[in-house]
Amino acid sequence: MSRLEEIADRDGWRCWVCDEPVDPGASANDDRGASVDAVVTKARAKRSAPPDERLAHRGCNTKKAAKEAVVPWAAHLFVVDAAPIVPTVDRLRRKGGREVVARCPTYEDGADAAAWLADRLSRLAPDLAVVASVEPGGGQFMVAVATT
Questions:
Q1: What one-character-per-residue DSSP string does the chain give?
Q2: Percent of the chain with pLDDT over 90
Q3: In sequence order, what are the beta bridge partners of 133?
Q4: Residue 31 confidence (pLDDT)
Q5: pTM given for the model
Q6: Tens digit of pLDDT for each residue in 110-143?
Q7: Which residue among 24, 61, 113, 134 sits deepest, i.e. has the most Cβ atoms within 10 Å of its Cβ?
Q8: 10 Å Cβ neighbour count for 17?
Q9: Which residue(s) pair with 14 in the sheet?
């Protein structure tokens, strides 16, 4: 089994950047084809830690280039002031604790965002156990994630 297949099996054949399925039969030259991304976050670079290898679409990997990835929030969610996901994961890995990551106008919007975020983080950072919650605050509802 090749290194690509090992990483793809571990990641469930899903792109870590866009969270869409990767086609195992697609050509390596196809934008939807599989590639291995050496994920180097600022936290890893400061510690001189080896990169974390993750599965990505070739197109996502190419578009990201050597920059830190921007993992988007789902378009169907109604969130305001959403925090960048990758730096939030890095801080939670380093320090643990709890972070407010978005505001929502209604409890239902917050619950949708919290459920989506908990699911997304379970694939983005499978080694990081987090729980997402919704809390009232300032006439809106805050979405928070905390390490468990």
A1: --HHHHHHHHTTTB-TTT-PBP-TTS-TTSTTSEEEEEE--HHHHHHTPPPEEEEEEHHHHHHHTTSPP--PPPTTS--BSPPPHHHHHHHHHHH-SEEEEEEESSHHHHHHHHHHHHHHHHHH-TT--EEEEEEEETTEEEEEEEE-
A2: 45
A3: 144
A4: 87
A5: 0.74
A6: 999 999 999 999 888 888 999 999 999 888 999 9
A7: 113
A8: 23
A9: 21
